[in-house]
Amino acid sequence: xxxxxxxxxxxxxxxxxxxxxxxxxxxxxxxxxxxxxxxxxxxxxxxxxxxxxxxxxxxxxxxxxxxxxxxxxxxxxxxxxxxxxxxxxxxxxxxxxxxxxxxxxxxxxxxxxxxxxxxxxxxxxxxxxxxxxxxxxxxxxxxxxxxxxxxxxxxxxxxxxxxxxxxxxxxxxxxxxxxxxxxxxxxxxxxxxxxxxxxxxxxxxxxxxxxxxxxxxxxxxxxxxxxxxxxxxxxxxxxxxxxxxxxxxxxxxxxxxxxxxxxxxxxxxxxxxxxxxxxxxxxxxxxxxxxxxxxxxxxxxxxxxxxxxxxxxxxxxxxxxxxxxxxxxxxxxxxxxxxxxxxxxxxxxxxxxxxxxxxxxxxxxxxxxxxxxxxxxxxxxxxxxxxxxxxxxxx
Length: 395
Description:
Elements: E1 2-6, H1 14-30, E2 33-38, H2 44-49, E3 54-56, H3 66-79, E4 83-87, H4 89-103, E5 107-111, E6 125-128, H5 131-139, E7 145-147, H6 164-170, E8 178-183, H7 193-205, E9 211-216, H8 222-236, E10 241-245, H9 251-256, E11 259-262, H10 264-272, E12 277-280, E13 286-288, H11 294-300, H12 313-322, H13 325-342, H14 345-361, H15 368-391
Parallel strand pairs: 1-2, 1-4, 2-3, 4-5, 5-6, 6-7, 8-9, 8-11, 9-10, 11-12
Antiparallel strand pairs: 12-13
Helix pairs in contact: 1-14, 3-4, 7-8, 7-12, 10-13
């Protein structure tokens, strides 16, 4: 089977990395031929490492993009794939309009978001990364759906293949330090509230505990966050906080960590390295992944929304884990076992290969009614988005 994988720009992110890893497994494990179509970005290195060539798509400020759809049509006409696999809603909409309806090419859409994208056509085979979203789609009339969680390569992300002592040395960590590794986009706004809570926790707890915080990520406000980190380091009299920048391969950081803070794929990779994980989200959300929270996170995704009035929650969790090494070890093994049961890349690629075969065997059934429904919802949601930006002074 020849599959055209259609992803967004290859910037650092869980969905883009997942698209690459799944494509490589479909090729190596199931003999599929892969054409990878996406915008250029830092994860091209990951594509190169997996031996996958890139057919670049043009960048677009807004989606759906007519220029991207034209390039996609030309690529499909040239490559003649048996199936299009579109990652995330906007690529799904563009593939649906550009090639599924008019060229009758079978289509699978994979959406990893935390909410149901109502504008997607309901008759197209669609996978959802969050179980609760998948169940909601089924209740609302999606005809062919599946739950496809975020996968983790348990071979590449095995704590036994990276020397922890060497990794800690390369991270500049002393043997007695408690290293916290966190991933974050260094931008502004409420979405980075947890980052300020991390820095504040290290500032307060670092007076009595040997905490070190390594922040993995980059963004437009890096200078401001660096200023905050430098001020904290000066107050503590040591380099307690270090901005490590973006990493296309952060495995050494996870291997060196004592505690991992993150959400989504970064939380899963921390768990794969047998590290205790504090899952963070919006409005001060912070929970340890443990036997008491695992079922909730499995259903709702490794993310959450707090009530916004408890900026001490993260600090309390960091103190608890930092002072209890046996708890860290126990939770790390629990997380590794959970990932092996629910997020193994090999098993999930088998599930995806089966879905691809089923989708390619079903003749496309695009309907004018389904297309009009998607268009109406799209126009309505874009209108509300424009109003919201105007209210916020962003447009």
